[in-house]
């Protein structure tokens, strides 16, 4: 069993990422299964920030398939290039969307989602193998601080693929 996660009372994102990163590293520690690692990482991120939805989609063939997540039920499959997740996969880059209603082709899994960040996870050859998808119920939630912090967390998963 792992020790409970602890976070400072500060809501400053940089401070919270600074607290989460070493705890996530310890949490993932010797884990060799990517599904188990994604499950714990989605729970840790959700606990740290309380966003509406935090989860992973795995690349399976020509679509993204729902993986471990925290939050309400979600879309099970997303095509290459479709929505924010499919665009992040296609472009192999982090996507920050301040207002999902303004994103052409946004896939609305939840009517409460207002902003979104999607971070691709790559294998050793640089191929996108999964994406971390996070939705907020507020507009303009995510910034480069989140892009960097979540990117560092996702990098912990890359050796598992």
Describe the 3D structure.
The chain is α+β, with helices and mostly antiparallel strands. It has one domain: 2-Layer Sandwich (Beta-Lactamase), CATH 3.30.450.40. Helix content is 33%, strand content 24%. The chain contains 4 helices and 6 strands. The protein has helices spanning 13-28, 34-49, 83-91, 144-155; strands at 53-60, 63-70, 77-79, 95-97, 115-122, 128-136. A 6-stranded antiparallel sheet has the order 3-2-1-6-5-4, sandwiched between helices. Helix 1 packs antiparallel against helix 2 (34-49) and helix 1 packs parallel to helix 4. The protein is globular, with a radius of gyration of 15 Å.
Number of strands: 6
First CA to last CA: what distance? 24 Å
Shape descriptor: globular
pLDDT averaged over residues: 95
Strand content: 15-25%
Q: What is the strand arrangement across the widest sheet?
A: 3-2-1-6-5-4
Question: H/E element string?
Answer: HHEEEHEEEH
Under CATH, the homologous superfamily reads: GAF domain
Number of alpha- plus pi-helical segments:
4
Uncertain regions: pLDDT < 50 for 5+ in a row? none
- Backbone structural class: alpha+beta
Please render the helix and strand layout as text.
Blueprint: H1 13-28, H2 34-49, E1 53-60, E2 63-70, E3 77-79, H3 83-91, E4 95-97, E5 115-122, E6 128-136, H4 144-155
Antiparallel strand pairs: 1-2, 1-6, 2-3, 4-5, 5-6
What structural keywords apply?
161 residues, 4 helices, Beta-Lactamase, 6 strands, single chain, alpha+beta, six-stranded antiparallel beta sheet
């Amino acid at each position: 069993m792992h020790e409970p996660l602890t976070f400072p009372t500060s809501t400053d994102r940089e401070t919270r990422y600074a607290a989460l990163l070493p705890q996530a590293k310890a949490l993932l520690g010797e884990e060799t299964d990517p599904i188990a690692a994604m499950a714990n990482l989605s729970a840790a991120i959700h606990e740290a920030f309380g966003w509406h939805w935090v989860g992973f989609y795995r690349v399976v063939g020509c679509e993204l398939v729902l993986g471990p997540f925290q939050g309400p039920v979600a879309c099970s499959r997303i095509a290459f290039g479709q929505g924010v997740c499919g665009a992040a996969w296609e472009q192999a880059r982090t996507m920050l969307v301040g207002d999902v209603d303004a994103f052409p082709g946004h896939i609305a899994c939840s009517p409460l989602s207002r902003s979104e960040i999607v971070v691709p996870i790559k294998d050793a050859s640089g191929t996108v193998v999964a994406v971390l998808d996070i939705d907020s119920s507020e507009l303009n939630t995510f910034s480069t601080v989140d892009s960097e912090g979540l990117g560092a967390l996702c990098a912990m998963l890359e050796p598992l693929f």
